[in-house]
Amino acid sequence: MAMDEALGAIRDYIADGKVKPGDKLPSEGRLCEMLGMSRSPVREALRMLEALNVVDIRHGSGVYVKSLGSEELIASLSLVMGLMPLSSLLDMYDLRLIVESSLTERAAARITDDQIDELLRIQMSIEAAVHPDGTSKLDDEFHDLIARVADSPSSRALLGVMRSRSSNYRLYRTERAIEVFRVNNAGHREIINALRRRDPVLAKGAMAAHIDSTRGWLAALKPEAEIKESDSGR
């Protein structure tokens, strides 16, 4: 498609360093001349890049390149991942398991007593919830704190996007909600205990088991269970 060609060409123009963050792209007319294309595919490509948080279209001024930091670009994946069916999300869980368990392994050597206390506080709040369906934000805080301790901004951003997509599947509104809640809490406790012991191998294994358990719950869902609300257990 012409739009795909235009998108690839403009992407390469930016990636090759011809413009830097904050710079203005050539005008739409000039881009058409450079690419040998009509305005329609070029305009569509620019809109797509704006949706992906790569450029900022300022009407009456022009198109400007936004920050190209890894965190910002990874965060833009939320648009694409939001369209993933359950089967594709489950495939992504292989990546989540590898990344998050490795970050937890690293966190075991870095975490402070205060941070362990914070994890425990979050977990106690989760367990004290009147209903597990309202613990999504706390669950996100739990996982994000570990990623923050590991000090890998790109991986942390990627995991945030993946957790956000998983939240479309409301495990705590299924018939097995109580069982899911119990197993998830036990998994969190295992992770905390491993981190408290500063045992990287144990911490990595505990997180891997926890993520694999969540993948199992998701795999048991039927595709029609996918809904758009954002709060769920993970």
UniProtKB/TrEMBL annotation:
Molecular function (Gene Ontology), one example: DNA-binding transcription factor activity
Record keywords, A-Z: DNA-binding, Transcription, Transcription regulation
Matches recorded under SMART domains: FCD, HTH_GNTR
InterPro entries reported in the protein's UniProt record? GntR_C, TF_FadR/GntR_C, Tscrpt_reg_HTH_GntR, WH-like_DNA-bd_sf, WH_DNA-bd_sf
What Pfam families does the entry give? FCD, GntR
Q: Which domain of life is it from?
A: Bacteria
Q: Tell me the CDD domains matching this sequence.
A: WHTH_GntR
Domain named HTH gntR-type: which ranges? Answer: 1-68
Q: What is this protein called?
A: GntR family transcriptional regulator
Origin organism is Bifidobacterium scardovii
